[in-house]
């Protein structure tokens, strides 16, 4: 079976290279037959990749230790679910998953583009084939998944225990769906540039794909944060780790794109800028993959040191030089007819929003690669830690928060004094009243007061937008408030979906502020029966329990939480030691409420039964996860097309590219 | 396996033979597919609908409303002209 897997990947590579060449020739010589043949080659390529994926999954599930990959990532006793997630827990499998997702996206994109924008088809097929060829080359020549073990062992090594968690099971594929999704907008834009300029329709098509990729990246980041919070046991959810940053950078750039493309649609401006953002987002997705796989920067998430880095850098350089060369070639054609009418307009606010998003992305990029840069220049590796990111990114995030409230309320073209008063009086009052209320309640951290007051202001702007829309609908149609609200959202899905996303980001921002500024932490060693106060909680340690199960030793600190004399129930914290190696995992004791999280980690213990515990009270963490759910709801609304085009039979002139052959 | 590979190769290469005859056609001469035109028209409709809402909620001044509306209607008319042109 391993040889069939190898053959499948090799044949898929040949097909990808054929598709690349046929699309290039077909596009250049205007030979539709070649382009259709190239698209069909991608279908066959996808089928072969699916076959390879199926072979690997079967080997993992059957625990076939003749496969080196299975030996490295599966062991007897490992839950079946994790045998499946082992597919992407290793370098080779994750690259195969990447290729599979790309094929799925490519087929969907080719089908839709053949129907709506056949002129872009050669370019889209060619770019997707080129990217697929690179990954298939890696899978066949550099890091093949179908290597056989010369002496198959009786048992495998199993996955890294830190990965044996449901959040880590879904975090990587979700992130890949986002990373790989950035290839399609890139292909559409490159195809547009090749055929004479990224026409508006092409960019709008790219927007749909970008929105999906953005949503997947958002969820991937959220799942990763949740995993970090519940598995790593350090009490936080974001550490500015290089691999976290690798996913954050394309998210920031794609967020900037989703705002700038609105200006392009509504005001026919920023076309050059939106095209650059699409190229940049794709480049950062490859750069992120390079960071994760090259081992050039150490990270808790990254794969081990590998020879892949050079190949990824080469591919990144090639694709960026090619794409930016095309952008430069078409630069004048992309120039917008309109210019900004006023600094106080929605266009200006969105432009500033883009500049700040890019500034954050650049800061994160610089901080992430600084160790490598410093080593290259001085010979000494210098790291910048979370304080650097916190100090630079926090003020920029506050500016973004302000713009999130200001932008949607500003009118297109220019704002008058009357419209400013009309739009900002009520939300501004909400923000000021909230600030005064917080100060009166004793909140003394100025940053937190500012952040919450701004959040109140932004929430006020969103509520005002909904209220005005509902009022207008009721005045014109006489609908009830609920019906008017539903109709409003359904008729303006993008706009109101976007506002709901803003509310989700707002919740997330409040959660991050609360948990960063007001977190309380204690590290204590307790004897059985002793208790410790942390925040408004009291935690009693009742003793240590020891148990063994399937090659592990589990130490459990029996804890009970109280608040104001009220018994909140057990709050056990565990540490699992793997007897076969040095690994251990943490099961935190966690009690979550909308107000705060009581979070306990078992750090160590003595033979006498004393336990060392880290206890934290993290305010508003639940708001972060709730924000993720609200973002999901808003993005789902925004992704549904506002109208479904009635299907018509397309009358294509003789000889034109026809989607029917795909 | 060999039969499957051969069948796949025939399927992938078949369009080459089909297009080799006279009238191989030119993609760039192809008419604008109706769905593309509908998408262009739909984008203008979206913009107009949003503008109407902004106007109704008092977010756009009367002058800017007229100017923006004229711009969108111009784009809609252009899409319509392209549509008619492509059907000739």
TrEMBL record, chain A:
<protein>
    <submittedName>
        <fullName>Heme lyase CcmF/NrfE family subunit</fullName>
    </submittedName>
</protein>
<feature type="transmembrane region" description="Helical">
    <location>
        <begin position="246"/>
        <end position="263"/>
    </location>
</feature>
<keyword id="KW-0456">Lyase</keyword>
<feature type="transmembrane region" description="Helical">
    <location>
        <begin position="175"/>
        <end position="197"/>
    </location>
</feature>
<feature type="transmembrane region" description="Helical">
    <location>
        <begin position="308"/>
        <end position="329"/>
    </location>
</feature>
<keyword id="KW-1003">Cell membrane</keyword>
<dbReference type="GO" id="GO:0005886">
    <property type="term" value="C:plasma membrane"/>
</dbReference>
<dbReference type="InterPro" id="IPR032523">
    <property type="entry name" value="CcmF_C"/>
</dbReference>
<feature type="transmembrane region" description="Helical">
    <location>
        <begin position="449"/>
        <end position="467"/>
    </location>
</feature>
<comment type="similarity">
    <text>Belongs to the CcmF/CycK/Ccl1/NrfE/CcsA family.</text>
</comment>
<dbReference type="Pfam" id="PF16327">
    <property type="entry name" value="CcmF_C"/>
</dbReference>
<feature type="transmembrane region" description="Helical">
    <location>
        <begin position="350"/>
        <end position="373"/>
    </location>
</feature>
<feature type="domain" description="Cytochrome c-type biogenesis protein CcmF C-terminal">
    <location>
        <begin position="313"/>
        <end position="639"/>
    </location>
</feature>
<keyword id="KW-0997">Cell inner membrane</keyword>
<comment type="function">
    <text>Required for the biogenesis of c-type cytochromes. Possible subunit of a heme lyase.</text>
</comment>
<keyword id="KW-0201">Cytochrome c-type biogenesis</keyword>
<dbReference type="InterPro" id="IPR003568">
    <property type="entry name" value="Cyt_c_biogenesis_CcmF"/>
</dbReference>
<feature type="transmembrane region" description="Helical">
    <location>
        <begin position="209"/>
        <end position="234"/>
    </location>
</feature>
<dbReference type="InterPro" id="IPR003567">
    <property type="entry name" value="Cyt_c_biogenesis"/>
</dbReference>
<feature type="transmembrane region" description="Helical">
    <location>
        <begin position="424"/>
        <end position="443"/>
    </location>
</feature>
<feature type="transmembrane region" description="Helical">
    <location>
        <begin position="393"/>
        <end position="412"/>
    </location>
</feature>
<feature type="transmembrane region" description="Helical">
    <location>
        <begin position="120"/>
        <end position="142"/>
    </location>
</feature>
<dbReference type="Pfam" id="PF01578">
    <property type="entry name" value="Cytochrom_C_asm"/>
</dbReference>
<feature type="transmembrane region" description="Helical">
    <location>
        <begin position="275"/>
        <end position="296"/>
    </location>
</feature>
<dbReference type="InterPro" id="IPR002541">
    <property type="entry name" value="Cyt_c_assembly"/>
</dbReference>
<feature type="domain" description="Cytochrome c assembly protein">
    <location>
        <begin position="88"/>
        <end position="294"/>
    </location>
</feature>
<dbReference type="GO" id="GO:0016829">
    <property type="term" value="F:lyase activity"/>
</dbReference>
<keyword id="KW-0472">Membrane</keyword>
<dbReference type="GO" id="GO:0020037">
    <property type="term" value="F:heme binding"/>
</dbReference>
<feature type="transmembrane region" description="Helical">
    <location>
        <begin position="499"/>
        <end position="518"/>
    </location>
</feature>
<feature type="transmembrane region" description="Helical">
    <location>
        <begin position="95"/>
        <end position="113"/>
    </location>
</feature>
<feature type="transmembrane region" description="Helical">
    <location>
        <begin position="39"/>
        <end position="60"/>
    </location>
</feature>
<keyword id="KW-1133">Transmembrane helix</keyword>
<keyword id="KW-0812">Transmembrane</keyword>
<dbReference type="GO" id="GO:0017004">
    <property type="term" value="P:cytochrome complex assembly"/>
</dbReference>
<feature type="transmembrane region" description="Helical">
    <location>
        <begin position="620"/>
        <end position="640"/>
    </location>
</feature>
<dbReference type="GO" id="GO:0015232">
    <property type="term" value="F:heme transmembrane transporter activity"/>
</dbReference>
